[in-house]
What does this fold into?
Amino acid sequence: MEETISLKELLETLKKRLVMIILITMTAGLVSGIVSYFFLTPIYQASTQILVNQAKSDQAVYNYNEVQTNLQLINTYNVIIKSPAILDKVSDELKLDMTAAELNEKVTVGSEKDSQVVNISVQDADAALAASIANKTADVFQTEIVKIMNVDNVSVLAKATVLENQSPIKPQPLLNVAIAIVVGLMAGVGLAFLLEYFDNTVKNEQDIEKILGLPILGVIATIDNQKMDELKKRKAVGGRSSGRGETIGI
It folds into this structure.
């Protein structure tokens, strides 16, 4: 026999487990907020831009083939910027206690499609250090590319700067809390339905009818102890009153 679940049953399940769902949701949001505000280290980002372009010639004419050549070189340049040949020199000149591999994890290089501008971004817990690494990486690359590829077609467009009261790019506590609340709510709802699914106890006459597949002919009402005590007291009082009436009659 196929079982069907009505919307009313779903809502009743959620209502029955509402306290648990709210507790799980609030706990997830609270834990996320505490971790984001007090345990995660703020990370700052600084970026610099370099332009890949051939040196100006006597012909002040736009050369399409020259631009395409520069665009094809950018992918190669992106790899070279993050290579030990560049990052080792950056670490030495800034006197950083970092290897090229450690520095590589902090540096991100990218460019927009069909753009000759390359962005060098650095993330670090120290905003000033991030800006210094970004600027030094651009300077070292501009110098070393002449030796590596025997071309001089790189110029620095914009240097990385440190803004006053600069905000970290991560963590984002409000976003983390919002995500945790949504995840906690989903987990609470899922757990509520899971507990309901594994709960095979019989609670009412509808459960009996559903399990046995037979119609219910009658229901024996239950009376709690307080009501039973009240009934006994009433019977006792009634019995005494009846006894007095018989004595008076005699």
Summary: Residues 44-158 form a domain with the Alpha-Beta Plaits fold (CATH 3.30.70.1130).
